[in-house]
Amino acid sequence: xxxxxxxxxxxxxxxxxxxxxDVLRREEFEAQAAEAAGLxxxxxxxxxxxVGRELKDNFLRALAxxxxxxxxxxxxxxxxxxxxxxHRQEVSAYIDYAHxxxxxxxxxxFSGKKRLxxxxxxxxxxxxxRNVSTSHSSPNYQVIAENACGLLFKNKSDRKIxxxxxx
Length: 167
Description:
InterPro entries: DUF4464. By secondary structure, the protein is of the alpha+beta class.
């Protein structure tokens, strides 16, 4: 039967019918919601590193367009970079942009003082000369390396799987 009353539905859930996990009483939920709203209002808003910068590079312009969305969690981006390190070895990586925004100061990248470069702590890192490969999950993506389709990334929020194979 379809319950006609919202209050009846609440009582059913509070009693544990068809419930999985912890059930909060209305007072507990409202207290946690008020606390979360207070924390969100008190959290300082980080300013965008790309604001007010004259960006001539297309790559930096594309990063600047996606910066706010990645900082707020509205979008999630994976960056692929292939470059040469200081030893002239070719390296590449898939980078979780939102995670890097929280761990790095991007003002040095947007100002042109430093280049965004692959690290062995990124989602996936590969040194083409030494055949060294590493992969690490991030707060936003789970790395699926042992798959017949190749390297896959599973978004932890919407659970969609991203196949980075260009074919």
